[in-house]
Amino acid sequence: MSARPGQFSAQVLRREELSSHLVRIVLGGLTDFTSTGVPDEWVGLVVPGQFQSRYYTVRSWDGAEMVLDVVVHDEGLVTTWAQTECVGDEVTISEPKGSFALPDDAGWVHLVGDLTALPAMARIAEEVGGPVRIWAETEEVSGYFGDGAAVTWIPTEHGSRLAALVETIEWPDGPGYFWMAGESAQMREIRRYVRRSLGWGSDRHDLMGYWSSTRARQVRAVDPGPLYARGKAAGKSDEEIWAEYDELRAGQ
Prior knowledge:
Elements: E1 7-19, E2 22-28, E3 42-46, E4 54-61, E5 66-71, H1 77-82, E6 90-94, E7 109-114, H2 118-127, E8 132-137, E9 150-153, H3 162-166, E10 177-183, H4 184-197, E11 205-211, H5 224-233, H6 238-250
Parallel strand pairs: 7-8, 7-10, 8-9, 10-11
Antiparallel strand pairs: 1-2, 1-6, 2-5, 3-4, 3-6, 4-5
Helix pairs in contact: 5-6
């Protein structure tokens, strides 16, 4: 699998199941990759036989290996692949982006999120100095945040209740920073609360919708899987298949 400009080829070195819904993928071979240094940075991931990317937080990057913790669902582009013996597979990732921006005068950090936010919250907690408090709406993943982390695990039997949870938080005195990620509708509710009730400006919080519970994935007008297989069988290069895919999509 070759990469376009702004993308990087990598190989799966290891795979580990952290829980029933969280799989760790360790990538190597990223010789030209440069991290943003932002602790909630994310990359687009393209797995074999696909052209569409899905976005994942970089749990860690040590200059040689990149760790991605993938949430697995009933179905999905990466979900099916991540539950196979994918060690040795070649993948493509995009240039990283991040949004966490801690003010210089922040005396505390509060992190709230669901299962999809665990990697970012864990990395933020490791890399940010000062008091960090975490609320994680998911089944407990033993040892995920390390010893001594101030974490509250919240059951999810009755669906997401993050918006209601945030309204019960007692915020510390003095300036701080609030970061949160999860289901988009919950983020919209919390954004209104933070801005209207708490009166915080955008420099004091970062709220991101990682996924939507109401928006189903659209059927793709051009299925890249069969196109990729046919192209390879015909002896075409990845770049030639990319070009054909782009032309077909443009004609829809």
